[in-house]
Structures are given as structure tokens and as C-alpha cells.
Amino acid sequence: MAPKFPPSRCRCGQCRANKGSWKRIGSGRDVTDTMTSTTIGRLRVRLAITTILTCRCTKQTGHRCKQVFAVSLLSSFTKSPMFLLLRACKLSQGIASLSTLHLHSHYCQPALNFTIMPASRYPKRKPSANGAPSTNGTLNGTNGFIKPDPDQPPPEKKRKTVLAEPPSEPSLSSDPLREPHPFHQDAEKHGIVLRKYYPHEMSTARARAYNNNELPRPIELLKAAQADTAEHRANTPVAGAVVHWFKMDLRTTDNTALFCASQKAQAAGVPLIALYILSPQDFEAHLTAPVRVDFMLRTLEILKKDLAALDIPLWVETVKKRKEIPSRIVELMGEWGASHLFANMEYEVDELRRDARMARLLAKRGLVMDVLHDTCIVPPGRLTSGSGGQYAVYTPWFRTWVRHVHENLDLLELVESPTKNPESTRQKLAHLFECPIPSAPENKTLSKEDRERFRALWPAGEHEAMKRLSKFADQAIGKYQQNRNIPSNPGTSSLSVHFASGTLSARTAVRTARGRNNTKKLDGGNEGIQTWIREVAWRDFYKHVLVQWPYICMNKPFKPEYANIEWSYNMEHFDAWKEGRTGFPIVDAAMRQLRSMGWVHNRCRMIVASFLCKDLLLDWRMGEKYFMEHLVDGDFASNNGGWGFSASVGVDPQPYFRIFNPLLQSEKFDPDGEYIRKWVPELKEVKGKAIHDPYGRGAAALAIKAGYPKHIVDHKGARERTLAAYKKGIDSGL
Length: 734
Prior knowledge:
The chain is α/β, with parallel strands linked by helices.
């Protein structure tokens, strides 16, 4: 019988009992000197061993398993990769010393024998007498050449194999970097990996391949596309219009790509057309919260009016399938007679890959796409450490960031708003001005009650952003350092929603803060202003990290080894956390604020994140996902960075053995219980310090009467369990 394909664990009795796992012991050049040859039906098959896996028992029992699995690529059977599983029951001095293996595949279930032969490279076909390459043959000894085999008829020119059904599990691929992580099923079962849009959770080896420059980063794909189309873009004349594609830059003030598009249109004497694509599938794939979708749609209404005052039309269109966005934009440009498309760069993986494809697609159609840096004050890739690498720790990165900005003050210069379109634009493009702003997709629609509440809490548009920034800079920024960690005190700017939707640029924010200081130095003067600028810079930092380590955008931790932690996936605990029923008042207050406002104080975000991961031992990605699905200011890089910090799996995190005590956090940052009483009203009658722990401080009767739950976990016991789980996961080496 062929083994289950592929085996997720070693199948020998000793290792099966101890959950033996696979360890790669060879790949690439280490094993490409090994060649194989066999016959399947009428076809001569040549194989090159590309990767060897050996079983390693995860428990140190002294058992030495001798099973080996090798992943191979069929090199002359089909043009597309064929997945093969080679099983060796004995291992002595290495794979090249084995004499016989048993071959199992989707294509041939019966075991077939073949011989391993060394070869220095892929064998070439030996020329026939007339000089033409041979079409059939066998490996000739050890020299790697083919000799004719008179007993075998020539192989069929084309062979198609049809499988009855695809494998239920991901299979070992000819590319070992495409193997899923051993725990991939947990991630899919609990909605962390959305298989509708994305592949299985990648292996730790694939994540490390990005670190080792074995795989291209998405931004490198875009840079390559820009380089390959540079001459075409420089030499293509402007046609009948120029288009600016709005993404998360919903403002006319200090918008780099919008300004460049306007300049290009004005120089050519043609109109500028603004475009926004509503993508329900992107909203779903990227976990965009309904409250955030509502905020963006309201912002588009305001943006449409602002642009109309400049005779610039804003065309907003819903494209149901996100893969059709590039072709639809090409169609629209054709309808409008436009030749140039401008857009600001987004640094998430999907967006970078899409824009790289679009740049090439437009060039093939004779069109131009310019993608520009705008979101960050210092574009990703500009700052490097003394060794030439990218920073993974915030403090040295921030020092370099400050120094770089001081040396390049133009980075804080604001670009002008777009100029007015020609007077004839309204007549020529009248139908574009009549375009309505669509409603939210069905799966992102708010109830009437929620919509009214959120619209009162979060007025939309860049004018509101500037109003809020000015008020904060005038009244609160000077004392930001003292007040920023007190959730009951409105000492923060609450501008994160505007940064996330692009109604406020980071340049504008930092320039405004600097203007209120007594120095032009970003790291000098008033302590509150310094601290706030430092917090704005965190946003840049997390986007730089996202660009350099893109696998964090693919459900992987920054530290790949932390993907091996075995989480509890206790859904009752997860529901209690989401609904604010954990029995820890500070945690419950924060989670209820999130559900009510679509926003929660930053200190409380850290508290609830630490509690989820380190008290409940729940997968941090479940919390990260839940936040994105509910935050009005949901920004992937910042949200991921915050969760990575709290769960100790991200860039520049707190050590995993540092675990927040929710009681101490509550006493320190909500000493009078004002925040708790606001969001957990059933405890409003609890007096004094008992508010932080009613069952442990003599207020149990009041808590029971009010229906407030007891602790769902014991913090001390949970801490010990978490430390053990983290250590085991880190040491597992999967």
C-alpha cells in the first residue's frame, strides 16, 4: 500500500507514538548530483532528487528513525511539475548510497522500482547518428548520458493524466518551499487563513527564504516592473486625459500622485479624471471592518465635492472580482481616451503584486502607470543599519529616521493641491460628474443604529482630519506624554482613523506638531511633542518592516520559529474575550469599547492582546483578525505590529516571558476605575480598589447580583502554561 500522500508525520511506530516530525537534511545543490531512471508504462522517466527529508522524533527518546522521504521533480514525463514521493526504508551514508527505492505517486499507485545513479548535472540526450537528439533511452552507467533502448517504443508526444479527485490535503511539491506548515489545518479551521483567496499557511522554510533573498519580495517585483517600463513611460506622450487612482489616500491636500497627475494633465492641456474602485472581494480578503467601509464611503462623498469644485470628476465603480480590477481600469482608460495612470503605493503584498502586474499590462497596451511613494515620510528601503541590512528594532531605526529627515528636509515638504481642470471638462465629461457613490457591499453593511452611532463618533473627510489635528496640537499635544496611557483621559489625538484612510498625511501631521514646538528638531523641545512624533513614526516603521519581511502579511509571525507554538483554540474563551465576559474588568471594558466605538485606546489594545495570547493561550492571529474586522482605523501594518509586540512574535517585541498582569495594568492605568465603570456598567456600584477584581476584593456579592462573571482563567496558572507552550514551540524546530 502506498503511504498517505503526503504523510504529515513519520509513519514508523516509534515516531508515530511520539509525533515524529520531518526535518529537511538536504536541498538544492546538496542533492542535485543524484539522478534516477525508471519506466512507467511506455515512458522512460528521469528524475532529479531535489530535497531530502528525514524523520526526527520531537521527544528525545533515543530512537533514531531510519525513514527518509525525498521530494523529486519529474524532468521528462510532463511539462508541468509532477509530485512524487520517494520512500527509503534504510539510510546509511546518504541518499546516493541507496540502491532501491519504492516510488509512489498520484499517477502510479503500485510500487515501482528504480535505481539511483549519480550525475553531475541533468543528463543531456545523446545525439543519434544523424545528429538529432534521441527520443528514448536509459541512463548509461554513471556518465549521465542517454543510450538508445531498442526494447522500448518511442514515448508518446503528449500524455495527459486525469486524477479522479484532488488530494484532500496539500501535497509535497517539487518545490519544498511550497509545502504547508504542519499546523496549517488549525489556521484554516479557525478562519485565520481564508482559503477562498489565499493558499495554505506557508512553511517556516518559505518564510525564511524571504529573509535569505531566495524569494523576491513583492516590492522588488514592482521595482522590476517600473525599471522594465521606464523607457516606455518616459517616451509615451499624453493623450486625451490623465487618471489618478485613489486608494487609501482620500484627500486633495498633500497627495503626491494626485499632484503629479494634475501637473501632467495641466502641461498637456487635458483633463484630470479621478478614479476609485470599490472591491468587495478585497474588503473580504483584507478583513475590512464595516465601520471602516462606511467611513471611506462617507469620505468619498466629501472628496467628490472637493474635486468637483476644481472641475475634476470622481468616478467610483464597484468591481466584483478583484482579479478583474486591472483589466477594468484599462477599459475605463480606453473609454476616456486616457494614456497615463497615477497612483500612490500601498505596501501590502496583494497590492504590490497587483501594481507590478498592472504596470506591465498597461505598458503592453501602450499606456503608462506611475506608482509613487507617499504614505511614509521616509520611503521603505531608504534606512539601513551599519551592516547594510534593514532595522528590526525600533529605537535604532527611529534615531536613523530622525537623522535622515533632518538631512533631507524636503521629505517634510507638502505638495500642492491639484489645479483646476480646463473649463470645457464639465461639458465633455458630464456623465462622469453624475457618478453616484455606491452603497456598502452586503457583507459590510451596518445596521441603521450602528450607522448613526458611528457617524456621530467619526465624522469623515480631510477637513475633519485637519480640524481634529489643529485642536489636538493646540490643546493636548504638550501633555501627551503624561496622558497618553490613561484610557479615561482624552489625551490622545484619535487621528488614527484619518491616517488609515489617507484623509491626513503623515507629513502634514509631523509638520503641524513641529510647528507647535520651540525647535525644528524632531527629537528635541517639548516632551509631549517629541513623544507624539515618535508615535507617528511607529507607523512608518511598521510599513518598512512589512516591505522587508512580507511574510508577516501572509499569516506568519516575524520570528518564523514562533509559528510552532501549539495554541489552545478554546472557542468558549475566545467568545468570552470578544464579548467582554472574561471576569477581568479592564479586559472586558476594552473589548466592549471596541464593539461600541470601532476603536479602543492603545494601552488597552496591548492589555487585551496580551491577555488573549498569554492568559488564554489563543492564537494571536485570531485576535489580529478580530481587530481588523471591527476597527475603524484598521491598518494592516500597525495592527500586525501591535499584535506581534504583545504576543512576542513580532518585530521588536517584548520577550515572551514578559506577561502583562491584567490586575496590575488596571490599577496602574485606570487607578480610580473610571474607564471600567463607563464600559462595564454592571460594576458601577463597586467601590474603591475592588473595581479591579470584585471577586478577589470583597465585592463578590455585588458582582454576582449584577451578573458579572468570575475569572475564566487563573492568571498565575495561565502564565506557567504559556511559558511552557512558548518554549516548546520555539524549541521544536518545525
